[in-house]
C-alpha cells in the first residue's frame, strides 16, 4: 500500500463513480477478516489505511483487566501502563503489530475487493440506466429463441421476452431487428435483468409518440388504449387546441403515420377514434367502424346500450365480440349492442332501414378481412 495505490483509488472514484472512502473502509474490513483467517481468529485487530500515503497499519486490540485470563485478547493493567500510563481497567489497549507476509495478504484482498466493487458499480450504472428507460421503446436484435423465450440484445444487455409478451402470429428470427417495450428492470446476482414486451399497450402509445409530432409536443393527447395484440387496437385521442383534428393528426396524410405503426406491429388493425366528454358520442366513436344510431347510457352503473342498424349489428359486435369488447375497455363502460329492428324504446322508431352499399361493403371487409 502506498501513494500510488491511493491515486488508483482516486481514478476509480472518478471513472467508476465509486466513493473512495467507502472503498477504503470496505478494504479495511476485508483485510481485518483476512488477518483473523491467517493469524488467529480469536485475535481482535483493527486495520487503518492512511488516506494520503496509502500506508497500512495493524493494531492488536486487547481489553485491559487487573488479572487477564487470555493473553490473545486481554492484557493486564500493569503491562498496558508500561506503554501508556493513562490506561485504565476497561480500556482497549492498542499495539501495532507487523506480521510476516501480511503485506502480500493485504494486497490480494484489496485487489479482489476492488474488482468486486467495480463490477458491482458497473452493474448499478447499467441497472439505473435501464431503470430510467422503463416504459420506453427499445430497438434490439434477436440473439436467441429457446423454448419459446426470445432473447433480444438491447444495448449492453440481453432482454428477455416471455411467451406471454409475444404477439400471437408473429415469428421471431435470429438477427431480426425488432422494437420492444421495456416492461421491467430488476437486480439479480448476475446483474440487471430486463423483460420486454410486444403485447403491452404502452408499445402502441410510444410508437404514436414517435410518429406523431403533435402527440410528442402535447398538442394531442392519447386518452386511452385498448389492445388485443396481433389483432386489433383502439386508440382514443383528444386535441388540446380547437383548430387541431386529433384523429387526422394521428392518421397522417394518406394514412402514412398510422400505417408506419401498423407495419411495425405486423399489420395489426388500429382504430383511431376521437375522445369526447359526452359519453354517448365517445361510445359511438369507440364502436367504429360500425355506425351507431343511438347510445343509451346508464351512469349509475356505467352501462350503455348501443343501437345500430340491423345490417351493422355484426360489424358493431365484431368477430368473436372483439369490437365491442375493445370499445368497452377503451371507454370503461359495459356496452350492450342492440339491433334497431329488435329494440323497442320510448325514443326509438322501429323501421327497416335502407341499406347503403358502402356500409355493406365495410361490413364484408371486416367480416372477411378483405383488403380493398
Which characteristics define this entry?
single chain; 372 residues; alpha+beta; N Utilization Substance Protein A, Chain:P, domain 4; OB fold (Dihydrolipoamide Acetyltransferase, E2P); GMP Synthetase, Chain A, domain 3; 4-stranded mixed β-sheet; 28% strand
How is the secondary structure organized here?
Layout: H1 3-16, H2 20-39, E1 45-49, E2 56-65, E3 74-76, H3 77-83, E4 92-97, H4 102-132, E5 137-146, E6 149-154, E7 157-161, E8 177-188, E9 191-197, H5 201-211, H6 213-216, E10 220-228, E11 232-239, H7 246-251, H8 256-264, E12 269-274, H9 279-286, E13 292-298, E14 303-308, H10 313-317, H11 322-331, E15 334-339, H12 357-368
Parallel strand pairs: 2-3, 11-12, 14-15
Antiparallel strand pairs: 1-2, 2-4, 5-6, 5-8, 6-7, 8-9, 10-11, 13-14
Protein name: Transcription termination/antitermination protein NusA
Function: Participates in both transcription termination and antitermination.
Subunit structure: Monomer. Binds directly to the core enzyme of the DNA-dependent RNA polymerase and to nascent RNA.
